[in-house]
Design a protein that fits this description.
This protein has helices at 44-64, 92-95, 104-112, 121-129, 189-193, 195-208, 210-214, 217-223, 235-243, 247-271, 281-286, 288-301, 308-313, 324-333, and strands spanning 2-8, 12-19, 24-32, 74-78, 116-120, 137-142, 146-152, 155-156, 276-279, 315-317, 343-344, 350-351. By secondary structure, it is an alpha/beta fold. A five-stranded mixed β-sheet has the order 3-2-1-4-5, sandwiched between helices.
Length: 352
């Protein structure tokens, strides 16, 4: 089976062809998504139309190339809750907090003439790491925002209305002036511990403690020979500085991961799951230090019954690439998931 797969994130749109016989992606293409980066959206409905247009164009590019010849289906992993019929009910990192439900599977099927399956991006990514009879795990994506999914008993837990796996909207800071989430709320986990959230935290810290910032490795990476300016901080520089152990950058990282630790501890205490996989551009860019700091914060908030080595042993980074959703979506379309964990598209293709 050959199918076209796409991954729509808050920053990047990825497309490729998945060959189930070879279990491989071909022709991977990455372009900036025609979204707004969250709350910048003034007309979410217009952004929705632009995203649908872009997806259609990118799918047709793959379909018209040598890798797309003979493709029989399309699978889209989307950064937001998705219902059983392929309707995106929200996408804060793409078009902000409003916009209304978008029947994406139906729209794309009508435009392409192919059966189209749409699922949440982290749901798709989980199928890259799932194996029949394998142990349960919780996958977290740490990138423009934060989302999670739990895999247990051969299924990814999400209901037909798309609920489940949205810990990025967990309220962590109730202060009225807490950082604003892309959904419009304040103090959510995604506003504090995502790549975007930590970038904003680093800039706030640099403004609040200019001397400490000026003396940091982070400032060295960002200044390029000029006086350090907080607005010059980038996610790439922040991740590198934290990975290298810069105290200023690690402190910023810890400020967000303290909240992520509360979320992970809650999943552990409520379910007993002892395997947590972290993907997403920011987490993977920081690398093992991301897990080390998270483990320290988990020990601080507590994982009842576990020792410090136990806690560290249950944290894992995903594969060092950005193909998680594409590979997972391909496996899903090719039947890696049992039918009772699938989603129904406009053309009755089984996905989930």
């Amino acid at each position: 089976m050959r199918c076209i797969v796409a991954d729509v994130g808050g920053t990047t749109l990825r497309t490729a062809c998945w060959d189930s016989g070879l279990q491989a992606l071909t022709g991977v293409r990455r372009v900036p998504v025609r979204g707004t980066g969250g709350l910048d959206a003034e007309q979410p409905a217009e952004v929705q139309r632009a995203v649908v247009d872009q997806l259609t164009e990118e799918i047709e590019l793959v379909r018209g190339g040598p890798e797309g010849l003979g493709a029989t289906a399309v699978g889209v992993a989307f950064a937001g809750p998705v219902t059983a019929d392929g309707t995106v009910t929200g996408a804060p990192t793409v078009w902000g907090g409003d916009g209304g439900p978008l029947p994406l599977a139906e729209l794309l099927a009508g435009r392409t003439g192919l059966p189209v399956s749409v699922v949440n991006d982290t749901t798709a990514a989980a199928w890259r790491y799932a194996s029949p009879g394998g142990p349960p795990f919780c996958l977290f994506t740490i990138s423009s925002g934060i989302s999670n999914k739990i895999y247990v008993g051969g299924t990814v837990l999400v209901d037909d209305a798309g609920h489940g796996g949205e810990l990025g909207h967990l309220l962590c800071d109730p202060a009225p002036d807490a950082p604003r989430c892309d959904c419009g709320g304040r103090g959510h986990l995604g506003a504090l511990a995502s790549g975007r959230g930590l970038l904003a935290a680093a800039r706030r810290a640099a403004r609040a403690r200019p001397a400490a910032y000026a003396a940091s490795r982070l400032a060295e990476l960002c200044a390029a020979g000029s006086p350090p300016v907080p607005e010059d901080i980038t996610n790439r520089a922040l991740a590198r500085a934290a990975r290298e152990g810069d105290p200023f950058a690690v402190e910023v990282l810890r400020s967000g991961l303290a909240h992520l630790a509360t979320a992970v501890s809650s999943v552990f205490l409520g379910t007993g799951i002892r395997r947590y996989v972290f993907v997403g551009g920011f987490a993977l860019a920081v690398g093992e230090r991301f897990l080390d700091v998270l483990a320290e914060e988990l020990c601080r908030v507590g994982c009842f019954g576990l020792t410090a080595p136990d806690v560290r042993d249950m944290l894992h980074l995903g594969a060092p690439d950005d193909d998680h959703c594409l590979i997972g979506m391909g496996r899903l379309l090719a039947g890696a998931a049992p039918s009772n964990t699938t989603r129904v598209t406009a053309d009755s293709i089984l996905t989930k």
